[in-house]
Each structure stands twice: as C-alpha cells, then as structure tokens.
Amino acid sequence: MKYLHTMIRVTDPDATIAFFKLLGLEEVRRMDSEKGRFTLIFLAAPGDHDAQVELTHNWDPEPYTGGRNFGHLAYRVYNIYETCQRLHDGGVTINRPPRDGHMAFVRTPDNISIELLQEGGALAPAEPWASMPNTGEW
User: Fold this and answer.
1) Fewer Cβ atoms within 10 Å of its own Cβ: the N or the C terminal residue of the chain?
2) Helices and strands (H, E) in the chain, number of each type
3) Catalytic residue selected from 34, 62, 82, 115
C-alpha cells in the first residue's frame, strides 16, 4: 500500500494555490474535466511528490462548510519561524503561533487546518511568536 494524496474541495483555486505556494508547495499537475465540470490540481513539496494535496474545484458553485471537520494536513518545515513569517507577510493569519518553537496552525482560504511542525525538534522560543495569542479556531 502507498499513500497517494489528500483531496480538499476549494472554492477559489487561485487563492488556495497562492496559500500553498506561500507554504512552499508547487503545482505538479492539473486536469480539467469539461464533462464533469471540475478541475483537479495536484500540489507537493519540492522533491517530495509522493505526498500530494489534490485541490478539487467544482465549476458550479456550491458552499463548503465545516472545513474544520476534515481535521488537518501536517507538514514538517525546515524553520517554523521563517515559514510562519513568510505566511504572515503574505496575509495569512497564524491561528496557533509557534510559541514553543515546534508547532503552529494556519488555515487555507476554505478553512482547512494546516499543522506546521518543526523538523528535528523544537527551536528555542522567539518573539514575536512566544507571546502571540491564538487567533480563531485551528
């Protein structure tokens, strides 16, 4: 058995792709289905195409609620502070800041939670993250 991908439905592919690009993922393939009226966009971390996120965009609008019910996607990052700063600078809310130098949570434009985990163990606590409060749900 081999893990292939996780699928999330998205309402605005451009906004979601921009979010994941800030996170460090890249588009690896795309498929449009005229008959099915949907687009599939596959994203992965550079050099790690074995673990992909499939963005499914249905062309006919429909509301997606309860994104938190999905749970979350988790990514190991090289430097959690640099990653959170890049996301913050790109307009992403850091819902659970990396106060401990180990873990943070952010959300996609469709409210899917993303857990960020520091590679190799926690970094020393650092500001502004150490004293930043949680924002919203994560």
Assistant:
1) N
2) 2, 8
3) 115
